[in-house]
Each structure stands twice: as C-alpha cells, then as structure tokens.
Amino acid sequence: MPGTGHGPAALESAAVEGRPALLLSIDFEDWHQLVLRRLGLSDWDRPYSALERQTAVVLDLLDDLQARATFFLLGMSVANHRDLVQEIVRRGHEPACHGFAHTRVYEQTREEFRADLERSVDAIADVTGRHPIAYRAPAFSINRQTPWAYEVLAEAGFRYDSSQYDSPRVRERIGGIPESPYRLELAGGAELWELPVAVWGSVPIGGGAYWRVLPPGLLERALDGVRRRTAYPVLYFHPYEFDPEPLKAALPPSASARQRLTSTTRSLWRNTGRQIVARRLREVARRYKLLSYEQAYDDIDRLYGTRTRALSEEGVLV
Predict the structure, then answer these.
(1) In 3D, which of 124, 125, 194 has the Cα closest to residue 153?
(2) C-alpha–C-alpha distance, residues 74 and 116, integer Å
C-alpha cells in the first residue's frame, strides 16, 4: 500500500487523543481561470497569482491544526505552479489527481477522458515524483452517463476514487451511494475503492458552499451523525474558500456588460460567507482528527474490505 509513513502513527495518535477521524481533501484549482473560461475569454488559461496566496493560507492553517490533507491537483494548475505543488508535498500532504483541464467527465468521450487523465498524471508525477492513486472528477461528474470512467481509472493504475457526492447539484448522479467507503466491482475482475463525500440524510455537508450557509449547530449535529455511521467521512474544500482577500476575476477592458455581470454575480456568491470556512474548520479540528486519505488507506481496507458494490445498468449501486 503506497504511503508516506504517516498512516499508522496518525491513526494511533487520533485514538490516543480520543478524537474520531475525518478525511480532509482540497481541490487544487485556479478559481480565476474557471470563471474566465465560463465567460468565454480566449486567454482564460493563463495563471493567476491569487492561487499562491490562497494555498499559502491553507497550508499554514493545516500546519496550525496539525492536519494533513489529500490535494486533488488539477494538472494545468500543477504545470503553472510547480514550486507551489512541491511545497504542498513537502509539507506532508498527499498528491492526488483532479484531471488536467477541469472538463466534466460527461462532456468527454472515453478516449478524451483517458487523454486528459494521462496528461494530468504525467504533470503530477513530473513535479512531485509520485504517481497519484486517488482521483476526483471535476464537479463530481462521474455520473450515470459515464460508468466507463471507473474502468479507465483502474486501467490507469488508480486505486481510489472520491467523485461521488449525493448532492442535488450533481447532474444525473449515481443512485444508492452509501455513506461509508466501498469497493466497486468492475468488468474483468478489476476493482476501485470509492470514498464518497459526506452527506447527512438528504443534506450535503462535505464542504464547499454548504459550509458557508448551514447553521453551525446543524453542521455539528450532522458531522456527529455521519461519523456514527462511518469511520471515515470525507470533507472537501478549495483554496479560494480560504482567501483572506475578496474574490474578483480580472477582466480585460474589452469585456462585455454581460460578462461583467456574470463575473460580479459569481464573485458575490463565492465571497458570501467565505471567511466562515476557516473558522469552522478550526472548530471541527478541536473535535476531530483531520487526516489525508493516504493516512487512512490501510485502515479503510481493514474495515471495509468485504464491502463491495456493482453498478447496475440503471446507474444504481447494488
């Protein structure tokens, strides 16, 4: 089992401290790039320095909390910020894969997805010296239309996926997603672990925008409820959610009124409650041990190794 040596020690530490565990993940991507691509700007893929500031804040916060995280690295952001990605790994965090260009899986053919995946893996391995074994699809976009994506991931050497979030915002999401990790049985006898993002009943509580709008008491009860049913609930965030400065996309002078309106709307939404996320993560870290996926891999195999699922033709786990 790949790892850095943190796993057993971290789990023992969590038990000694009397704190249950949460798996912490960060989707490492440049918010400005994705907004500018949505606006249709031709130079949307140039890098922006805000990502460096945002990531520095995240890394310092995790050091302060004595926490480790799995960073799902977007390949194009890896290529644009090599030193920053190397610093992420130097601080003890796990490099994982988020694809290369943040294209939703259901917008690609099988071969396009494979090419995007391979390009991202090559970039990550070149910068970090490690081949990632965990993957998360952009916008959780492995859905009922794209079950073949799991086969491509297994063929590429991935052992873990974390692309399932039972949220109403996910288009045509796969049905029957359990709360706990499970092994997905694939054609030809291949297998792939799935580590789903935390959901409490019908309420997505794993992170993102939900942490900015849920009342603190509800979030606390929800995390406790999920943790009673699974040993490893998954949380996820983005660097921009920890930005100490307001988010504002850099538009060219030629931007249209419609583009400016769209940019302003997206900035307002992402800025709403933005400073709450770091404060809430600090509060959660007082009660839970925040671990990277690789720190828990061996224990997940031990606890859930017999829990297997298959995907039906209707896109429901059975």
Answers:
(1) 194
(2) 10
Kindly tell me the sign of the dihedral angle through the C-alpha atoms of 83, 86, 90, 95.
Answer: positive
CA-to-CA distance for 7 and 131, rounded, in angstroms?
18
Instruction: Give the SS3 label for residue 40.
Output: coil
Residue 1 lies in a domain: no
Within 81-139, residue ranges assigned H as helices are: 82-90, 110-128
End-to-end alpha-carbon separation of the chain, Å?
27
The pTM score is 0.91
* Site of tokens 């699809």: 137
Confidence class for position 199, pLDDT limits 50, 70, 90: very high
**Nearest residue to 237 (alpha-carbon basis) of 101, 66, 71, 5:** 71
User: Residue 10 pLDDT more than 70?
Assistant: no
* Phi, psi for 144 (deg, rounded to 5): -65, -20
Q: Tell me the pLDDT tens digit for each residue of 36-80.
A: 888 888 778 888 889 999 999 999 999 999 999 999 999 999 999
Q: What is the tally of structural domains in the chain? A: 1
Per the structure, the complete domain to which residue 265 belongs is given by: 7-309
118-148 burial, b for 16+ CB within 10 Å, e for fewer?
A: ebbbebbeebbeeebbbbbbbbbbbbbebbb
73/260 Cα distance (integer angstroms): 29
Pick from 53, 102, 54: which is nearest to 74 by CA?
102
- Is 55:88 a contact under the CB 8 Å cutoff? yes
Is residue 318 included in any domain, yes or no?
no
Contact 149, 105 (CB under 8 A): yes
Closest CA to 198 of 180, 220, 171, 217: 180
Query: How many angstroms from the chain centroid is the CA of residue 35?
Result: 18
Say if CB 119 and CB 152 are below 8 A apart. Answer: no
